[in-house]
Design brief:
Strand content: 15-25%
Radius of gyration: 24 Å
Bound molecules: adenosine-5'-diphosphate, magnesium ion
Distance between the termini: 51 Å
Structural class: alpha/beta
Length: 538
């Protein structure tokens, strides 16, 4: 039974202060001998958005399969009977839910994690797909809220990642169901779109539906959830759902790496958002002064102000989708030639593109050792980069067989082990879970500080931008038409500029210092807007 498994599981991989004995009863599903085991489940409640916060590979999808009736939880034995499941959850909030599920009264709808796969399964125009899904009679409303008007007549296969994401969310919303699951709804979206999605998901719950969501952008998870579960364990081996927690408290406990009710420490360090000293202009050694650059694609024109980059700093790049961030980074990387201005520096640049191409036949180890074998053996790189990103576990895998998140981590590593003066990383958080995002942010900061190098990071996750950046380059303009990159500025000024253009205010959590989005029209939101304080640096 599960008891044996609990002892066999490599619990020493994480520090579990006291191994909860009652876990055995909470054993929900096991895929087979020595296979993944899931303990406990999240609650599902009408009228509530329940958020799930945890690493990939800890059973979130498995839990959703159980809650949507796609699998009958085997209770870690050979169970195939819903009655036993109902009995196992007696006295639990899920008892009634499983009774309804057994009677066929629950209809689940799932917005899948990998929206990139949709064009392989669905053909035709956006309008036809959404009309067919529209059981709730909310076509016009949902199309408007998700800003899909302009792409209704486009073919599914022509859509960008961000467009596919919004179409997939719309299709799920339009169905008439009891239980809605949104698996990573923020991928490929910019901050404004993420908050719109969060609001429309909240509205669904407000209309009485039960909503469950997995989200790795903590500001968004915070904004949309009523309560959350933290999932902890060892990815690929076992996962445990925590008790439900208030959203604020659950996220804070997650950042501290310690779950109080469970008495479990699952990370050796705390994540803190203590104030970084604001970089003053004309301070420190200059890396480079880059000139004003223009790129004209005809339909789209980018104009980037010239600016100065300093040695040892990390500069965040923020702005909506389609505003020219990737184009700017490509010009600095020498991949794209400017229409006006010239990048004629002697700096060496290491660049991680937004969309990672895989045309390599060998293993991860082959690839990385070709780039810089010495760094793989270097103990600083091992403790600061390779181990925190879980790279050694991937060494024997073939590069062209990696999952999205694995490939992202390998691409980030490949970028950071190159010897260069300037590192350019375009959307490093895509496909990564929160733990990995934090590990990547920490690694970038410590490598730049230790090696006295400079990094530019394009990023939509506000918490990550805050955690990473010394200064910001803000992009403004009209997405898809024209963009303007401002010169690098301090965090306070930059965040204010950026968030004012989006119309969102953030406050700081008093305990952890993490940024929290204010609800639109709340007292804090109105006060901050009046004062022009969209974002608190300290
Ligand atoms: P998450 O959604 O948290 O990323 P999943 O529930 O998808 O996690 O998967 C948890 C673990 O269970 C993974 O290690 C996965 O490989 C494993 N797993 C998922 N489905 C099966 C299956 N049908 N048979 C065996 N193992 C599985
Ligand atoms: P972001 O990274 O901010 O999302 P991009 O730099 O990728 O923005 O794109 C900005 C605009 O330039 C978009 O409208 C995009 O369609 C257009 N664009 C990008 N690359 C090309 C290209 N090679 N030819 C024509 N248009 C392009
Ligand atoms: Mg881009």
């Amino acid at each position: 039974g599960c008891g044996i498994c609990v002892h066999k599981c490599p619990f020493n991989a994480i520090t579990i202060v006291n191994l909860p004995e009652e876990l055995e009863e909470g054993c929900v599903h096991r895929y087979g001998i020595n296979a993944f085991v899931l303990y406990r489940l999240p609650v599902v409640k009408d009228g509530m958005v329940v958020g799930i916060l945890g690493p990939n590979g800890t059973g979130k999808t498995t839990a959703v399969k159980a809650l949507s009736g796609q699998i009958v939880p085997n209770l870690c034995g050979d169970n195939e009977d819903w009655d036993n499941v109902i009995r196992a959850f007696r006295g639990n909030e899920l008892q009634n839910y499983f009774e309804r599920l057994k009677r066929g009264e629950i209809r689940p709808v799932v917005k899948p994690q990998y929206v990139d796969l949709i064009p392989k399964a669905v053909r035709g125009k956006v309008r036809d797909l959404l009309k067919k899904a529209d059981e709730a009679g909310k076509f016009d409303e949902v199309v408007k809220e998700l800003e899909l008007e302009n792409i209704l007549d486009r073919e599914i296969k022509q859509l960008s990642g961000g467009e596919l994401q919004r179409v997939a969310i719309a299709a799920a919303m339009l169905r008439e169901a009891h239980f809605y699951f949104f698996d990573e709804p923020s991928s490929y979206l910019d901050i404004r779109q993420r908050l719109r999605v969060a609001r429309i998901i909240r509205k669904l719950a407000d209309s009485g539906k039960a909503v469950l969501t997995v989200e790795h952008d903590l500001a968004i998870l915070d904004y949309m959830s009523d309560i959350i579960h933290v999932v902890y364990g060892k990815p690929g081996a076992y996962g445990i759902f925590s008790q439900p927690k208030s959203t604020r408290n659950g996220i804070n406990e997650f950042l501290r790496g310690y779950l109080r009710d469970e008495n479990v420490r699952f990370r050796p360090y705390e994540v803190s958002f203590t104030k970084k000293s604001e970089r003053k202009s004309q301070e420190g050694e200059i890396l480079v002064e880059y000139p004003r650059l223009v790129k004209d694609y005809g339909a789209f024109r980018l104009e980037a102000e010239g600016g100065t980059l300093y040695v040892g700093e990390v500069v965040g790049i923020v702005g909506p989708n389609g505003i020219g961030k990737t184009t700017f980074v490509k010009m600095l990387a020498g991949v794209e030639k400017p229409t006006e201005g010239e990048v004629d520096w002697t700096l060496t640049v290491s660049y991680k593109p937004q969309y990672i191409k895989v045309d390599y036949e060998g293993t991860v180890f082959d690839l990385l050792s070709k780039i810089n074998a010495g760094k793989l053996m270097n103990s600083f790189y091992k403790t600061e980069l390779l181990n925190p990103l879980g790279i050694p576990d991937l060494y024997d895998k073939k590069v062209n067989e990696l999952s999205g998140g694995e490939l992202q981590r390998v691409a980030i590593t490949a970028c950071l082990i190159r010897d260069a003066d300037l590192y350019l990383l375009d959307e490093p958080s895509a496909h990564l879970d929160v733990e990995q995002r934090l590990a990547v942010s920490k690694a970038i900061r410590s490598l730049m500080a230790k090696n006295e190098k400079t990094a530019l990071i394009v990023e939509h996750d506000v918490m990550m931008v805050d955690y990473l950046s010394d200064r910001l380059i803000v992009f403004e303009g009209e997405p898809g038409k024209s963009g303007r990159a401002l010169q690098p500025m301090g965090m306070r000024e930059g965040m204010n500029r950026f968030l004012a253009s989006v119309g969102i205010t953030f406050r700081r959590d008093p305990d952890t210092g993490r940024p929290r989005a204010n609800k639109e029209g709340s007292v804090k939101d109105r006060e901050q807007k009046e004062r022009g304080e969209y974002y608190y640096v300290s």
